[in-house]
Design goal:
alpha+beta; eight-stranded mixed sheet; 28% helix; 8 strands; 4 helices; globular
Length: 168
């Protein structure tokens, strides 16, 4: 696992802290609200507690991108249940809408890939909401492709993507 902080100008990418769960949850809600036209699913969920659990999870990792002292983006990943150890799933990846199109998501994605390489991961998977066209375009620019093992079903609300982690 990469221990050092990654710094680019005023952007620092580092491991999120449990005390930051509320800020991360707020960022996630703001980002997800942009592509759920009828409101967020699980709107009454305790997102702070869920994020605290993800941050404290020993088999996962949550990275955050911090600029000007505030969390501007977050990524959560781990080996999905039943997968081989060289596979990682990107469970959550959010950039605060106030920080879109500034390169923060690209920098955070690069930090994820760097960590996946260091951890010996060869394949990354994720699912993205069908209405989240912005995220789909972002992932395509990063090299994600439709997962041939999970073709989209007619009534599915998510697309499944796959990324080949480049060798170091």
């Amino acid at each position: 696992m990469i221990k050092a902080h990654r710094t680019m100008e005023s952007l620092v990418i580092r491991t999120a802290l449990p005390i930051e769960a509320e800020a991360v949850a707020g960022l996630m809600v703001r980002a997800r609200s942009t592509y759920y036209p009828d409101g967020l699913p699980d709107a009454g969920a305790d997102w702070s507690a869920r994020w605290r659990g993800a941050i404290e999870r020993p088999d996962g990792h949550v990275l955050c991108a911090v600029t000007q002292g505030r969390i501007a983006a977050v990524a959560s990943f781990r080996t999905p249940e039943g997968a081989t150890p060289d596979t990682v799933k990107l469970f959550q990846f959010h950039v605060d809408p106030d920080h879109w199109r500034r390169g923060i998501g690209t920098a955070l994605h690069a930090a994820c890939v760097e960590e996946w390489q260091a951890d010996g991961r060869r394949t990354a998977v994720l699912d993205v909401h069908v209405d989240n066209r912005r995220a789909q375009a972002f992932y395509a620019r990063q090299g994600w492709v439709p997962d041939p093992e999970i073709p989209p079903a007619e009534d599915d609300h998510h697309l499944f993507l796959r990324f080949s982690v480049p060798a170091e």
